[in-house]
Amino acid sequence: MKKILIAYISRAGHTQQMADYIAEGVRMAGCEAGLQIAATIKTEKDLAGYDGYIFGAPTYHRTMPPVMESFLFIAQQAGLAGKPGGAFGSYTHSGDAPLHIFDTMEHVFKMAMTSLGPFKLLEHLVDTPDGMRACQSYGRAIAQMLADEAL
Ligand SMILES: Cc1cc2nc3c(=O)[nH]c(=O)nc-3n(C[C@H](O)[C@H](O)[C@H](O)COP(=O)(O)O)c2cc1C
User: Fold this and answer.
1) Three-class secondary structure of residue 73 per DSSP
2) Architecture of domain 3-146
3) Is the whole-model pTM more than 0.85?
4) Which residue among 35, 68, 92, 100 is best mutated to probe the pocket of ligand 1, counting the most ligand atoms within 8 A of its Cβ?
5) 59 lines ligand 1 (CB under 6 A)
């Protein structure tokens, strides 16, 4: 079974909730979903063994939290070129973090990023049926990229 890693950080729990729903979407598409808090990933070896990668962080002070920046320096060493990917995060008014993460995955890591683009979700929508479905759809779409690869 193909495996997708969802590595995220979350201060107040909203991006974590998104990660859980995205994992549900990945599983709905028949893939295995691994959920990891990005701060617990210490070396690039911790990122080995997955077929796709979805990274998430909330926006604070118009950027991603520093711990996510450190995580991306580790991920840069992991040889993710060509792997399917996506980026997500909860926000209230600007939502910059998922855009920056997506940008790094696409242009620095040279990953095969989802055509859906970065997925930012307003905080007040995360814990609603529509928010849940939007997250599940994002996870399902990236898992579907793996199924399409296999054809
Ligand atoms: C001090 C502070 C600064 C914030 N700065 C931004 C910001 O620049 N842009 C934005 O869209 N949201 C900003 N937010 C809102 C958070 O992104 C939002 O609460 C998000 O849902 C938090 O996600 P989390 O629960 O995963 O930590 C800020 C929140 C706090 C408390």
Assistant:
1) helix
2) 3-Layer(aba) Sandwich (3.40)
3) yes
4) 92
5) yes
